[in-house]
UniProtKB/TrEMBL annotation:
Pfam families: Oxidored_molyb. Coiled coil: none annotated. Gene3D superfamilies: Oxidoreductase, molybdopterin-binding domain. It comes from the Bacteria. This is Oxidoreductase molybdopterin binding protein. InterPro entries: OxRdtase_Mopterin-bd_dom (IPR000572), OxRdtase_Mopterin-bd_sf (IPR036374). Residues 1-20 are annotated as: Disordered. Residues 42-181 form the Oxidoreductase molybdopterin-binding domain. It comes from Deinococcus proteolyticus (strain ATCC 35074 / DSM 20540 / JCM 6276 / NBRC 101906 / NCIMB 13154 / VKM Ac-1939 / CCM 2703 / MRP).
Amino acid sequence: MSRRKHFADPPPELSGRFPPRQRLALGFPTLTAAPPPELLPTREDWTLRVFGLAAERTFTWADLLALPQSTLTLDIHCVTHWSKLDTVWTGVRTRDLLAALELSPQATHVMAHAHGDYSAALSLDDWRREDLLLAHSYAGEALEEKHGGPLRLVAPHRYFWKSVKWLEGLEFMDRDRPGYWEARGYHHRGDPWKSERWERD
């Protein structure tokens, strides 16, 4: 099917919300580095392990829901040149999760690990932002597996490869470290407003 049916040029009145070289997604494209893991846990069986430069802890689904819940409306930007505006996510702000953890003073970065071999890192300063979310719902419904359910990271200020799907682990580190795509040449930061697609950019 033609890309013209899936994407459109940014409306002039909304152009300020689009980073350079981005187009408007008319649906919600699903792109992954690999197919979803065959045996994803159900919400009842899901856990999130915290480790590294933090007191080790494992969150259950009930633990996650006991934390403060937030609903955020966010614009998201994929490295493959599409943007989707006004997406609505519900979950736990990363800064609220941090408040429940005991971190080492040496911790500066967080590697988010998916079920499978996918990972991506952000700085701890990123994690303290108000608009980063561990999302379990999208548009008022439980997050679908194809979009990263049962839980994914949503980091709207970075290209969407940083928003790790099928989240299972958070590793606190004392330095930045390449994740799945960064090890293959993607930019370590991935700022869409600076077109940071490749490390050479």
